[in-house]
Design a protein that fits this description.
binds adenosine-5'-triphosphate, Rossmann fold, three-stranded antiparallel sheet, 8 strands, 193 residues, binds magnesium ion, five-stranded parallel sheet
Amino acid sequence: MGMVWYLYLSESPLSKPITLEMERGDKIALTGANGIGKTTLLKSIMGLIPPLSGTIELGDYISIGYFEQEKQYENTVTCIDEIWQEFPSFTQYEVRSALAKCGLTTKHIESMVKVLSGGEQAKVRLCKLVNRPSNVLLLDEPTNHLDVDAKEALKTALQAYKGSILLICHEPEFYTHIATKVFDCEQWTTKQL
Ligand SMILES: Nc1ncnc2c1ncn2[C@@H]1O[C@H](COP(=O)(O)OP(=O)(O)OP(=O)(O)O)[C@@H](O)[C@H]1O
Ligand SMILES: [Mg+2]
């Protein structure tokens, strides 16, 4: 697997021209100050934002799992239905146990996603990620909102993950235990820091 990025991000480039490559098995942490374009980079890789210039090349046989930094839930879907929509072949028991494994209680599981706390919503989103086969994870600040135990469980899961990871994270005490490489995005920013 390989990815090459040549990106000018946003209307005026957020970064100097850069070429980044990610190889199979890499676990890369992206760090750097707020607003320098880390989320924009991940969204560009996902094709959610068209790059102003340049290309993103994804290798063959890539199956990406993406965790967004911010996600607003507005509809009235319960956690059970949220997971069931994604995995229709699951039995109700399998849906409930998948959510429980991600640290959600029966009360949470039966609640609407939109009424849950930030950390509980993150657990629902992580539940989707871990149950869908993937070989690349793009994770945008997945530890935001998580408590100590949930962070530890996530760290262990990411260490054991067999695929590649691109992880945006502001917490060295989290990413240094996972990352094989750390890219400080401040090295290619056009912003005055
Ligand atoms: N839709 C948009 N329209 C205009 N500007 C945007 C848009 N999205 C992001 N930006 C701007 O682009 C810059 C980069 O934003 P981005 O979300 O990629 O930063 P980030 O590095 O992920 O920051 P953080 O660490 O706070 O998550 C910011 O200055 C932001 O205000
Ligand atoms: Mg961001």
